[in-house]
Amino acid sequence: MTRFHVTARFAPAAAIIFGLSASVVPAADPTGTWQWERTRNGQTRTTVLELHAEANALTGTFTGRDGEPVAIEMGKVDGDKISFQRTFKRDGNEFVIRFQGKVGPTQIIGKIEFTRDGEARSFDWQADRVTGPADVVGTWNFEVERDNGEIIETRLAVTEDAGKLAGRYTSRQREREVRDIAVKDGTFRFTVAGEYEGTAFRVTYHGKPAGNKIKGQVDYDFDGDAGTVNFTGTRKVASPLAGVWTWARSFQERKITRKLTLAVDGDKLTGTYAGGRGEPVKIEKGTVDGDKIAFVVNRERNGNPFTIQYQGKLTDGRIVGTVAFDRDGETRTRDWEAQRESD
User: Fold this and answer.
1) Could you tell me if residue 254 is inside a domain?
2) Kind plus residue range of the DSSP H or E element containing 17
3) What does the pLDDT average to over 212-217?
4) What confidence category does residue 338 fall into, taking pLDDT thresholds of 50, 70 and 90?
5) Which residues are CB-neighbours of 246 under 8 A, at least 6 positions away?
6) 83-112 as b/e, with b when 16 or more CB fall inside 10 Å?
7) In whole angstroms, what is the distance from residue 48 CA to residue 58 CA?
8) How far apart are the C-alpha atoms of 324 and 250, rounded to whole Å?
9) CA dist., res. 23 & res. 28, Å (int)
10) What is d(CA 114, CA 124) in angstroms, rounded to the nearest whole number?
11) Which whole number is the average pLDDT over 22-30?
12) CA 20 to 30 Å from 252, out of 134, 181, 301, 318?
């Protein structure tokens, strides 16, 4: 493999292609689209699983034989192992199927367990990763190691319209459109080409995405100085805690609905809280730790200020936790549970 080496002649073009310091790509990542087939009574059915992992929380949808996606339940991530369950209703009876497996780059291998007619049963389960246009949409940070060991980064924002991809490539705050962007046979590919200070350049990225990670190669040509280097990348995705959440509480024979609008940036939590009268106020001291959140709401009643402290954890698509507040000089706590209203 040719090691990337830029002479003074081609340094301006390289400045357009490569840019800032970057971070390390994490290990196993179940985020993405998976599917498997099972043949029974001469009929083969395909099941599609869409997963999103955030810290040790796993959310997503399961599409079974009726073709309608439904949310998974009790999703967890433990290193390269995942588990979740689905609740089915059939002939008026409800039963639970539990999935557990080990995540690899292209497969999840594990077991499916359920109880039928009072008997516990299980069988092997293998899901294969499938990659289409929707699996590369988002903002990607790409990392390239130059021959001097320096790790450098560029960024690509990918959008999709009716299955057709488009991308904007940014390096050193200069943005360019990409060419020939597509996903074919599980490989994501795009090209950036142009001129910079009179020097022609062309680079083509190609690699196989695995959830929010990608590894591959960059083929480059700086006015005849050509070669290939390896690259890795990560995709920035919205936190499952971000969005609008609501919950209700009865007070003096009234049902009061509260609304919480959250945004997540790393370990910082921001947003607004709307109480019984609907006046939104900014939340304060908001923090995120994996699937746990904490924040403070400062309110006023009858001219007297008071503070409400919220703590919660993302559990089965809900935020469940406790709220603490002072009333008449006494600290009180109660449970709270919020349902997602929208993203």
Assistant:
1) yes
2) helix 11-17
3) 90
4) very high
5) 257, 258, 259, 260, 338, 339, 341
6) bbbbeeeeeeeeeebbbbbebeeeebebeb
7) 16
8) 17
9) 16
10) 12
11) 53
12) 318
What dihedral angle (degrees, nearest 10) is formed by the CA atoms of 282, 287, 293, 299?
A: -30
Count of structural domains, the chain: 3
Q: Are 72 and 62 in contact (CB under 8 A)?
A: yes
Query: How crowded is residue 259: how many other Cβ atoms within 10 Å of its Cβ?
Result: 16
The pTM for the full model equals 0.60
Q: Which residues lie closer than 8 Å to 335 by C-beta, 6 or more apart?
A: 320, 321, 322, 323
Q: Answer yes or no: are the C-beta atoms of 7 and 138 closer than 8 Å.
A: no
Q: What is the mean pLDDT of the segment spanning 290-318?
A: 85
Same domain (yes/no): 125, 195 = no
Helical segments of 40-82, H only: none
Please give the mean pLDDT across all residues of the chain: 82
Nearest Cα residue to 13 out of 153, 155, 223: 223
Residue 118 CA: distances (Å) to CA of 14, 97, 121, 182: 66, 14, 10, 49
**Phi, psi for residue 66 in degrees, rounded to 5:** -85, -5
Give the end of a domain, one of 236, 259, 294.
Answer: 236
Q: Is the dihedral of CA 64, 70, 73, 77 positive or negative?
A: positive
CATH of the domain at 159: 2.40.128.30
Please identify, among 191, 209, 236, the residue that sits at the C-terminal boundary of a domain: 236
Maximum alpha-carbon separation in the chain: 78
